[in-house]
Amino acid sequence: MASQPSPRRLRMGVDVGGTNTDGVILDPSLASSSPSRGILAHIKTATTPNPSAGIMTAITSMFTQLEATHAADIRPEDAIASVTIGTTHFVNAVIERDPSRLSRVAVLRLSGPFSKHVPPCVDWPDDMRSLILGCHARVKGGLEVDGSLISDIDESEIVEQCKEIRKRGGIRAVVINGVFSPIDTVYKQEERAAEIVRRELGGQGEVDVVCSKEVANLGFLERENAAVLNASILRFARRTIREFRQAVGRLGLKGVPVFITQNDGTILKGEKAAELPIKTFSSGPTNSMRGAAFLVQGQKKDGKKEGHEQGEAMMVVDIGGTTTDVGLLLPNGFPRQQAAYSELAGVRMNFSCPDIKSIGLGGGSIVRKGKNGITIGPDSVGYRIDKEALLFGGSTLTTTDCTVLTNPDITSIGDASLVKDALTEEETQQFKAIVKTKIEKMIDNMKTSPEDLPAILVGGGAVIAPDELQGASRVLKPRWSEVANAIGAAIARVSAVVDTIKSTETKTEKQFLEEIKTDAIERTIAAGASPESVEVVEVEMLPLQYVENKTRFVVRAAGDFDFTRSYMSSDDDGQASSEEEASGEDLSEPQTVTDTNPKAATPSEVNVLTYTPNVFNRIWHISETDLTFISTGCYILGTGGGGSPYASMILLRQLLRSGASVRVVSPADVPDSAAVGCGCGAGSPTVSIEKLQGDEMMQAQTELYKALPSSDQNQNKATHMIALEIGGGNGLQGMTLGASSNMDIPCVDGDWMGRAYPTKWQTTPVVFNERSPIWSPIAVADGNGNVLVMPKAASDAAVENIIRAALSQMGSQVGAADPPVTGAEMKRWVVENTVSQAWRLGRAVARARAMNRLDEVAETIVEECGGGQKGAAKVLFKGKIVGVRRTLRMGHVYGECIIEGTDVTDDTTINDGRRTGGRRGGQGVDGEEKEDFTGKRIKIPFKNENIAAIRIPAEDGSDDKNKKLEKQEDVLAIVPDLISVIDAQSGEAVGTPEYRYGLLVIVIGIAASDKWTGSQRGIDLGGPKAFGFDHLKYEPLGRFVKPVSVIDEFDRSIE
Questions:
Q1: DSSP H or E run through 65
Q2: Per-residue model confidence as pLDDT tens digits over 64-114
Q3: Do residues 848 and 857 touch, judged by C-beta distance below 8 A?
Q4: Radius of gyration of the chain (CA)
Q5: Residue 702: phi, psi to the nearest 5?
Q6: Cα separations in angstroms, 598 against 129, 169, 419
Q7: pLDDT of the residue at 332
Q8: CA–CA distance, 698 with 743 (Å, rounded to integer)
Q9: Using one digit for the tens of pLDDT, what is the confidence trace for 499-545?
Q10: I need a surface site. Which of 197, 214, 316, 705 has the fewest CB within 10 A?
Q11: How far is CA 581 from the centre of its chain?
């Protein structure tokens, strides 16, 4: 009887990189029992212009190895269960702006009256927008945060827009994006609209239709951006994946499923990856991390097994020829993900990507000798190392040369005699110290707790790393680490994510969580996982502020692929080919692109080091550069609250680009008889990222003046505008309302808070209490036809409470219009020059980036606020977030953030064997010694905004057990002084909704305006007592210094 073929059990992984294509064949059944880790064949070969050819070369080579070593018991064509490919092919098409691989896209928004001022791709680079965006339209549709309708879709509107799309010609894809579509499980607006578009414009062969909810989660603009990029590469992705399948099939692997790895370390079936190619963009680093963990899993150290069988987090250090990438593999076996947003080719998106830190250190990094010692990188000889390095007869000193020189045991790399005298003994010690310090710093920055973690070194350049590293419990250099990325592809799992918002009125959070976990598990099984292997690996619950009884749930489940399901192994290559051929399209033919979008001057084209604002006759004319600076500064002054100014900045920038003018004037120049109006947004930041502003701000202003007594309407009509709060998104509303395309009046350089506060009664007019109530009459509008006017109120607190109560019935987001005050009143109550202050803070961040001195950005911000000798601002702490908790009470998100002191800079230069900055202090911009925060901890309690920065014991966490009241002597700063948290890696502010484990931050304290601290009433309304910290008293951080006016400094007046 003829022998039966071996059962399919082997997995093949192939990773197609920019330089090399790596491959591996492994037997999972031998992974834990064999010294070989089940690896039966592996290969590293050069990537070819046609990646399919490189894949075939790699597979053929591995088959040859397999036949040479296992010919008796393995026939590759019968033994391979799956082929999983990781590729940079799709992301490269976007980065390279290749018109032959990118299609033009139309965008159809289901948003009703919202988002009208912020068109699609508004924040893209000009060339990308011109290349990809064909046309766009806004039609009825969209949901509120509670799942109710903004409006239902209108089929006739969509049909009409399809006619316009067809008239345009050349459009190959349509994106449907609805407000709050990711939580739309009832009305299915995007799906219904997509059916109409397919019916009118044709199916896959003619026009692709993409629903944004299938691509990314909450965040209207960012989800739309991701969906548009995804739609643009769909045709190219289908062709590429078909070629991958055909290459595999030509090698005798007919019927073997082909998978593509995605960003989070899991797999997509080939046809699904062809629908969602954007989810593969960052899969390379993830593959490396998971492959590295696989290589050490099960190894014994001191009697214990390594790896994720023990539920242990692990650091993966991937050292290539040019860069070192470090990522954290969590105990659940998946890499830690980035914060809410990521950026690719200048496009901001919100799909999941691994959190990877990179530095210019690799095996080919160039080593230079100078008067102050040696330097390493960031430039590298890269793939030319075998020609240019000294070891190979070249003339460039590299890290590999120096490593061989310092380690005589390395005999397999080049000719060691050629580097014999390359470094002196002192330089040798400097080299070893720099390499060690750079890697240690990255490890320290990525850790989320003080405990040491195992560090796995992989990549071709791993030889340059030492065997011991501070912060690493052990350093592992496993065999086969050079193909860790291909191994990661071979072992990738299946996953699904549920991101939704639920009302907790009828069920508890715990009950909803169990339901959502079940949903995530079912979705994972449906995606191809074996039911017995599926587990929940990630859970996050975020209560929504100002939205009653609403919580956002994010749950991820993962499992191993079920290779026993026959339908998963169907061969659909022929179908895919016929569909493309039926379209009659030559996908390799370059498209002709006409740039229909004129380029506007952008901040990136301006020299921020020499830029001066346009101030003429004491009127400041706002430019895009000014706006960028102000927006950055507003978020810093938001003290964690106020919501991100990003969407408001984009809206105002569009007004400027459309020809509108925005003017800012000094409070001192406003006549006493002037009428100074105010407008602001109120609601949940979660709503504002989905339901982009429509006309509600202007509608509220119009309704307010209608409500004023007829005799007062003209007399009281605003002649100037002022921001309610400079902190967060509201900091830009005074300029937006005053723009020439809206009310056409100047904005005052000041506001009513000097920061952000959670309630309307925490404003300086209420502090002065010259008349009460100050905030009525008031009008609010939701932008969808609903208006609330309060002609009278008993108190300003009543105004706050009634508006908050109405919010949930008005979509949890409204525009508000406050009654004008006189110019004389404004001068007495205003916190002066806060627009100027925001501008200066934003400029400080921009300059630090331009000069690559983000390590000094905190000190520069302090100087701009009158720090240094004046003591008006100071750096309170530097460290890493190691704990966050949140709870919702009365519409406000309360919580606290725990920060552990650590080095957050990237200054690792060695002079005379000593570090010049970073972990152990150093000098600031003023030459003073920096404080060393290592080993210390603080907590920041918050109520939407940060309340205080308080020292806590090093072992203290965020648990309530044995919790003690804070002591006065431990307070570093407290309200009304400003406590701002900034990202140490970017200089940008970090809002309380963005606090997350592992984020490197700097905490800055800024003295509050004397409008708050000059009276006991101000301290009572804006200080500790107002936030429930009755046991603490306000002690000033320093002496307040009034911000320097941009108008006073840069005015070019004509006498």
A1: helix 51-70
A2: 998 888 766 777 777 888 899 988 778 878 888 889 899 999 999 999 999
A3: yes
A4: 30
A5: -60, -45
A6: 11, 21, 55
A7: 67
A8: 8
A9: 888 888 788 888 899 999 999 999 989 888 889 989 888 787 777 65
A10: 214
A11: 39
